[in-house]
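Hey, resending since the last one bounced:
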Amino acid sequence: MSGSDHVFWLTRRLCQSFLTSSASWLEQTVASSGLPLELPPAERVRLDHEETLTAPPDEPPPILRNKVVATQEQIRAARLVSQIDLVISGAQWKLVLHTEGGQKDALGFNRMSLHRLLGALVGMTHKAAWKLDGIPEWLSAPDATP
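The structure tokens again:
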């Protein structure tokens, strides 16, 4: 991990809230390019999600590229995330993580990155054996995680 990397903790409740709201937003904004318009939005976003997770990225996804075990010092310095905002302004997308003391960290990303982040979070919730309610089937399926 580089000196600018941070370690964050997400609660089960915050993770569930972020997954459901992001999934809902993806369903409402799913592109129709290359996807049959007669399919319901949830089915189109499921196909979009599957294609995104199986498509070769231009570069390795951050979760793989940065797959380094955090040191004990970094774990002790980890900050608990209290709120996650998805800020979208045209082609500029940011994920803003709010932590204690009013600190904020912003991560730039795009639709593909969001799909991959959601897939990674779902994978982590499966490993943690968290029961999450309200997660759409296209996102909660075990084979939907990278």
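The CA atoms of residues 15 and 121 lie 8 Å apart.

Sorry for the duplicate.
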